[in-house]
Amino acid sequence: MHSRKIRSIIIKATAFLVIASASAISGVTTWTDMEGTVTEVSALELQGTVTVTCSALWTYSRPDWTARTKVAYRGESFTASEKISVEGRDMYRLSNGAYISANPAYVTFSQSAAPSVPAPEIKTTTANLNMRTGPGTGYQIIMVIPKGAQVTASGSENGWYRVTYQGSTGWASGAYLVSPDTQAPSPAPSASATYIRTTANLNMRTGASTGYSIITTIPSGTKLESLATSGGWHKVSYNGRTGWVSGGYVSILSGYTQKVIGIPYVNQYSPVYAPMGCEGASLLMALKYKGYTSLDLKAFLDAMPKTERDPFNGFASTPYKIVSGVPEIFQSIFPAALTAFGKRYSGNVADGSGYTTAQLKAEIDKGNPVVVYVTTRNYETPVWKVYDMGPSGSVNIVDNMHVMVLTGYNSDGEYHVTDPASSRNTYWVSQVKFETAYNALRWAVVVR
């Protein structure tokens, strides 16, 4: 056992990528690289000033004597937060993230008064907020903290707070953190959003005239938000792309409103072919949007629990091909099992089965995508069939089930979905079609 001030840290020290995260106050220091040799490093917390006494001395980008980065000259001073031993020789960790030799033949060290440790305080995020490995935008993102989440702040540096959220610790900008009893400043008044509907299949171009190249063609009847106007053209976003459309082929939607969450898109057919993987692809999109995972579809589906034929307890068979069996296998994973799988990535995944459509909309209002069990791509009328589900017995289930993500709704009663099996990626579904398909089972998984 080491004392509270001294501890052993196993790090990988090579000339490859190293991500460093440290706190001079808490004394917690970790290093991680992508490959390399394991080196034993011990560290002692301190606070003081290091001054170079020789003519010139190398500094290092990490605790590795081969990682030379810049030369410091006689008389230059730095703030040190740790003294560490690397391969039997001592280094100081500097507040600027660099390292320098601690050999007294080259430097002097002046101890500072012990820093006061601020009491931890609770902060609330005012937007989806990146947690980073250090106090600045140049550091790597660890995760995205959802808007409205409460974090524990234990120190600050240059307008950034060291925060802990769901077991992860890093740095977040103080510009998006407020005390729970502090009212967030109201946004400046702005004009209401303007929405348009295309009246023909309409080219979206890179600029506001026919002289610009075509990005894509937007189908007739598509609702869009007009982001800006120029010379009778509207700037719009469609399927993740932004460009300009002619105002001669759109109509203004008076009194129209919508709420849409823009989540990252995952297709279940490409680049990974998973014709039965709509449940996993849908959950993955929602988790990625919240910053809970960066896995690709193959890795995510491989991690999903599997069963021989019981979707109540895992994915029945395989999502990578349509299988035949006697009796037939219903290839799916049902909400309770999908929720349990999602909780591996975040405790904010919840089984929303039984939710009314009003409750689904309430989740959308909070910025939470909802994985919904509906019917196949054209929202056909549910077709029921009995399947042998092994330990769960014979179950009457919607045979033409399909799973996607509910990402919005509008004042016309339509629902906005992100469909892992559709070439359209996202689209609007009429109220009758969506509610008929959803209400057959009322199965849902919410990612908050």
Write up this protein.
Keywords: Signal. It comes from Youngiibacter fragilis 232.1. Residues 120-181, 192-254 form the SH3b domain. This protein folds into four domains: 6-111, Roll (SH3 type barrels); 121-178, SH3 type barrels, CATH 2.30.30; 194-256, SH3 type barrels; 278-447, Cysteine proteinases (Cathepsin B, Chain A), CATH 3.90.70.10. Strand 22 and strand 23 form a beta hairpin. The strands form ten sheets. Strands 1, 4, 5, 6, 7, 8, 9 and 10 form an eight-stranded antiparallel beta sheet that branches. It is mainly β and 448 residues long. The longest helix is centred in the middle third of the chain and has 13 residues, at 278-290. The protein is globular.
The counted number of beta strands is 36
The percent of residues in helical segments reads 10-25%
In percent, how much strand structure appears in the residues? 35-45%
Poorly predicted regions are 1-42, 182-191
What is the number of helices? 5
- Under the CATH scheme, which class of the largest domain? Alpha Beta
Straight-line N-to-C gap: 40 Å
Biggest sheet layout: 8 strands, antiparallel
- Structural class, by secondary structure, is mainly beta
Rg, please?
Answer: 28 Å
How many individual domains? 4
Q: What is the CATH T-level topology of the largest domain?
A: Cathepsin B, Chain A
The assigned CATH architecture of the largest domain is Alpha-Beta Complex
Average pLDDT confidence is: 83
Looking at CATH, the homologous superfamily of the largest domain is Cysteine proteinases
In one word, what is the shape?
globular
Assembly form of the protein: single chain
Signal peptide: 1-24
Pfam family, one: SH3_3
Keywords: Signal
InterPro entries: Cell_Wall_Dynamics_Protein, Papain-like_cys_pep_sf, Peptidase_C39-like, SH3-like_bac-type
